[in-house]
Structure formats: C-alpha cells, structure tokens
Design brief:
The complex is a heterodimer of chains A (419) and B (162). In chain A, the strands form 5 sheets. Chain A has a 5-stranded parallel beta sheet, with helices on both faces. In chain A, strands 16-15-14-17-18 form a 5-stranded parallel beta sheet. A 4-stranded parallel beta sheet of chain A has the order 10-9-8-11. With 419 residues, chain A is α/β, with parallel strands linked by helices. Chain A starts with a helix and ends in an 11-residue tail after the last helix. Helix content of chain A is 32%, strand content 18%. Chain A folds into 2 domains: 257 residues, 2-Layer Sandwich (Aconitase, domain 3); 149 residues, 2-Layer Sandwich (Aconitase, domain 3). Chain B has one domain: Aconitase, domain 4 (Alpha-Beta Barrel). Chain B is built from 8 helices and 7 strands. By secondary structure, chain B is of the alpha/beta class. Chain B has a 7-stranded mixed beta sheet with strand order 4-3-2-1-5-6-7. Helix content of chain B is 31%, strand content 19%. Chain B starts with a strand and ends with a helix. Classes of the chains: A alpha/beta (419), B alpha/beta (162). The interface between A and B is large, with 51 and 43 residues. The complex binds iron/sulfur cluster. The site of iron/sulfur cluster has 13 residues of chain A, from α4 and α11.
C-alpha cells in the first residue's frame, strides 16, 4: 500500500522510510510563522530558559493583525515584537503594511512544494495550495520551536476531495469551498489531511487554490493539499527563497474517504451565521439587507478577487444603505491593483480602502459591527462576535457576490451582472 | 476531583471562548479568565467555580489557534474540558497548558448544566449520575506533556534547564 501526501512528507521530514496513520513523529519544520502574537510567544520563550532562538532563519514574523496600532496596548505589543526580532537577529521580519501573513509567506517565497510549514495561526493551511504541508499550532509550541526547532506531530488520515467539471461564470473557488464545507460539516474533516484534486482544481489559478487550502481548516482539517504543477512552479520560480522537492501522494495511497463534486452544477453560495457549514445558495438569501460589505482578507483579498469585484462595481456606486470596505491581502497586490486601474474602480464606486492587513476580520479594529448589523464578507469565519458586536451577523461569500450585493445593498446573485 | 458542569453544544469556537478584540493585547491569565466565554455565555466568567467542568458536543475549540482559549478556561478554574470531539489546535493548546481534555463518545447528552461530576484520571473514568464512563488514555508522548504540567515545564526538563 502506498502513502498519502501527509504520510510521505512527514516520513521524509522524520527521516523514516514510511509512517503509519496516527504515528507520532518528532520533526523540524522548514519554516515557522508567527504574527502579532509574537510578543506573547517571546514571553513564553523566555520561560523556557534558552537565550537564543535556534535557527532564526527558519522563522518568519509578519505584523498584520492590528496594524497600524489602534490602541496603546497594540502599539506596546508591536514594539515588543520589533525589539525581540532585532535582539534575536530574525531577518525574515515584515512590519506592518507588507500584508497579511499568509499572503506574505506565499509572495515572499517561503510557501513551497514539499515543505513543512507551521504557524501560530489556524489559516497556515493556506500554503498547501502550493504543495506544502502546512498546519496551525499554538503559542506555547511556537515558543518551543524558537528554542529547539522541534515539534511532535501525529500523522493524520487523509481524505481525497475530487472536483471535476468546470466552474460556470460568476461561480468561484469560494463558492466551491463553501459548498464542500456545507456538505462535509465544520468538523467533517477533523484531524484529517485533505487532498484536493480533479479537473476543476487543475484549472484553477494559484489564487483560487489558496482559497481552498485557506478554508480547509474550517472543516476541521489539519492541512489542505493541492499537488504542485506547472502553475505552481511558474508562481514560485522567481520567489523561492530555498530549493525545494515536490512531494506527491502515491497512486495506491489509502484514503479514509473519497468524495466527489461536480463544479459545473455549482451556483454562488453563502455561509450564514454563526458557523461556516451553514451554507445555502445566494438565491435563497437574495434580497436580504446588508449593512457592511468586506472585500479582502487572506481568503479573498488577491488581485483576481479585486478584479472580479471591480468588473461589477465599475461605473456603478455602492448602495447608500450599505458600505464597502476593501482590504487587499498585501502591498504587492495593492500596487498591482493601482497600476491596472482596479483600485480606482473600487474606490471610485465608493469603496473605502484599508491598508493591507487583517483589518476588521477579527473584530479588533477598522470597521467592526454594531448590534443588529449584517455584514457580507469574503473572509473565512462567521463566528458570533468575531467582527464586533455579538448581536451582529456575518455572512460569507465570494468577491463577486460581495461586489454585486454592495451595488444593490441586499444579497445579490453576481451572475446578474455578467456581461 | 469533583465540580459542576457548564454545558454547551457543538462547534464552540475559540472566538466565543476568547474574543479576537483581546487577542493581541498583553494580558495575564487572571484577566483573561474575566473574559472567558464572553460571547457565548456572558454569565460564565462571573459564576464559574474552581473545580468546575466544561462539557460540550462535537468540535470544541474550532477556529482560531489562539491559545488564550485554553488559558482563560484554566485560569477561570476549569479542571477539564469534556467533549465529543475537539478541534486539533485547541486540543494541543490545552495539553500544552496542562488543561486536561477528555474525549467522550457516549454519555454527553445525559450531562446537564449544574450536574455534579467527578473524574478519576488514574483509572480514566468520568463519574456522572451513577454512571461510570471510561475515556481512552492519551498516547504516551502526549500524556508526558500533560503530566509535566504543560509543554514549557516539559521542555525545561528535557533541555536540562530544571
Ligand atoms: S485576514 Fe482574518 S483569517 Fe486571515 S490571517 Fe487575518 S485575521 Fe486571520
């Protein structure tokens, strides 16, 4: 019997011929991410009693969650991180404005095929879009990684999620992953490694694949994986910071479950409050008033998303009964969107441009919600209270659906705007 | 060790256990405890007693990796979290902080808020309403961390700092 992607990567990293599902292995990740939580991690690191970060070149630190500081407490947090980074000689430090950590690690060439990447952030799964094994961990374990470079991981069982067919115009990777999570459930892939494959996945660009891997954690998965192909190699060609070896599952690998979807039949989808698996078609919710629209985040803040939205908003205005926040995932994306005129269209329609970062996605600043308000967001979580008031509601959808709804002020099927 | 039950449903996420707006503010565990469960059960933080248990359904602790979700429960006095299943990062965080997490496939439905409950960790048994519910032992690698009082004391010992 062959091995799945997870088995092969973990065996290779552990220096073993093979590993069994559930086998616990100790290994050294290639790269580790932390963000605004680095100050707290540094404090825990000090408690370990080791002075220096081991292998500082393996750590990447990005300030993105509460930038620029909206309160003195955040400012102190950032200051402590800058001091730690300097004292420890951590070169891979990206201060505020460069972008959201997951986009930054991808753009800056750390997210590479076959690498093991751990981050003290649950959406670290994103790098699976480029064929990495990437998973979230907690703060204490990141502190121990600073000290030792080592961690234990349990080898997960794997699911194979096959998507054949072709996504129709106005239907995107976001609609697909919402449908998959709706079908599987928020805990449907708990502890599993999920491998996406099929015609529809092969046809996707890297941005779309990142949406799938980003949200793999919303069905409980440990990691999401998409096999590296020509598109992956083209993307990482001028970005890769180190050499890499792609890892592919064996053809006779043993999957705990194999599930299939047909992309051709899919329509735009929405996740209703307060769980990501509460998914219905946009048609079912059409007409519901929306107070705030959020276009961006690490899920859908890439150039392709902004362009999709701009195609709808060009020459139109954001409805007076709603408001639109635009949150590009990185400076690189923002620059491209300014160069090709995308940003002018979005801002010209009345969108409010925020600096690249997490913005209101986690409810810390920049556009939180009042009680009774409804937000339609391209982010990945709609948990109660996440964007401000616990009496607000968050709905999740694609960039196209958010743009169409911003124009109408109510939930709107983006296919209405197709030329 | 005995205490009473705080009962919740499926998919209790770390945002409702410890809100995002506090996540990047430097805070001691005691202060974190004051915000525990704020967006799920505003009464919890004021009323939970040391030695109580949180009991929930599937996928407890899903969502954000924030470790404060485990820290705030422990600091609030919660002795263990019992659930039908746990999200993997919360599970790791709890063990790493020395907060016992117990996966029970059966018997959760019968547990009601306010019920007394008792856990015998050495035998691996939850006592509730006259029933004895056995829970599976943790893998030895994981148990060693819990028994050391968490990942930091475990690592200090391993590195010979202590
Ligand atoms: S954009 Fe939102 S989901 Fe993504 S890393 Fe930031 S807070 Fe997390």
């Amino acid at each position: 019997m062959g091995m799945t992607f997870a088995q092969k990567v973990l065996a290779a990293k552990a220096g073993l011929e093979s590993v069994e599902v559930s086998q616990i292995v100790e290994l050294e990740p290639d790269f580790c991410l932390s963000h605004d939580n680095t100050a707290a991690i540094a404090k825990t690191f000090k408690k370990i009693g080791v002075d220096r970060v081991k292998n500082p070149e393996r750590f990447v630190i990005v300030l993105d969650h509460t930038v620029p500081a909206a309160q003195e407490k955040y400012a102190i947090n950032h200051k402590e991180i800058r001091e730690f980074v300097e004292a420890q000689g951590i070169k891979n430090f990206f201060d505020m404005g460069v972008g959201i950590c997951h986009q930054v690690l991808t753009e800056k060439g750390f997210a590479l095929p076959g690498k093991l990447i751990l981050g003290s952030d649950s959406h670290t799964t994103t790098y699976g879009a480029l064929g990495a094994f990437a998973a979230g961990v907690g703060r204490s374990e990141m502190a121990v990684l600073y000290a030792t470079s080592k961690i234990w991981l349990k080898t997960p069982a794997s699911f194979q999620l096959i998507v054949n067919g072709t996504l129709q115009p106005g239907v995107t990777a976001k609609d697909l992953i919402l449908r998959i999570i709706g079908d599987i459930g928020a805990d449907g892939a708990l502890y599993k490694s999920v491998e996406f494959s099929g015609e529809a996945i092969s046809a996707m660009d890297i941005s779309s694949r990142m949406v799938l891997a980003n949200m793999a954690v919303e069905m409980g998965a440990k990691n999401g994986y998409i096999a590296a192909d020509e598109k992956t190699f083209a993307y990482v060609k001028d970005r890769a910071v180190v050499d890499f070896d792609p890892v592919y599952p064996d053809l006779d690998a043993d999957y705990e479950e194999v599930m299939e979807w047909d992309a051709s039949e899919l329509t735009p989808q929405v996740a209703k409050p307060h769980t990501v698996d509460n998914v219905v078609s946009v048609e079912e919710l059409a007409g519901m008033a929306i107070h705030q629209c959020l276009l961006g985040t690490c899920t859908n803040g890439r150039l392709e998303d902004l362009r999709e939205a701009a195609a709808i908003l060009e020459g139109r205005k954001v409805h007076p009964k709603t408001r639109l926040l635009i949150l590009p995932a990185s400076q690189e994306i923002l620059m491209q969107a300014m160069e090709d005129g995308t940003m002018q269209k979005l801002v010209g329609a009345g969108g409010v441009l925020l600096n690249p970062g997490c913005g209101p996605c986690l409810g810390a600043h920049q556009g939180v919600l009042a009680p009774g308000e409804k937000c339609l967001s391209t982010a990945n979580r709609n948990f109660q209270g996440r964007m401000g008031s616990r009496d607000a509601e968050i709905y999740l959808a694609s960039a196209a659906t958010v743009a169409a709804s911003a124009v109408e002020g109510v939930v709107t099927d983006p296919r209405r705007f197709l030329k | 060790m005995s205490g009473t039950i705080w009962k919740y449903g499926d998919d209790v996420n770390t945002d409702v256990i410890f809100a995002g707006k506090y996540t990047y503010q430097p805070m001691e565990p005691k202060e974190m405890a004051e915000h525990a469960m704020e967006d799920l059960d505003p009464e919890f933080a004021g009323k939970v007693a040391s030695g109580d248990f949180v009991v929930a359904g599937l996928n407890f602790g899903c969502g954000s990796s924030r470790e404060q979700a485990a820290t705030c429960l422990k600091a609030a006095g919660v002795k263990a979290v019992i659930a039908r299943s746990f999200s993997r990062i919360f599970f790791r965080n709890a063990i790493n902080l020395g907060l016992p997490v117990i996966e029970l496939k059966e018997g959760i439905d019968e547990m009601k808020a306010g019920d007394p409950l008792d856990i015998d960790f050495t035998k691996g048994i939850v006592h509730h309403a006259g029933r004895e519910l056995a829970f599976p032992a943790l893998p030895p690698e994981v148990l060693a961390i819990l028994e050391a009082g968490g990942l930091i004391p475990f690592t200090r010992k391993r590195l010979g700092v202590d």
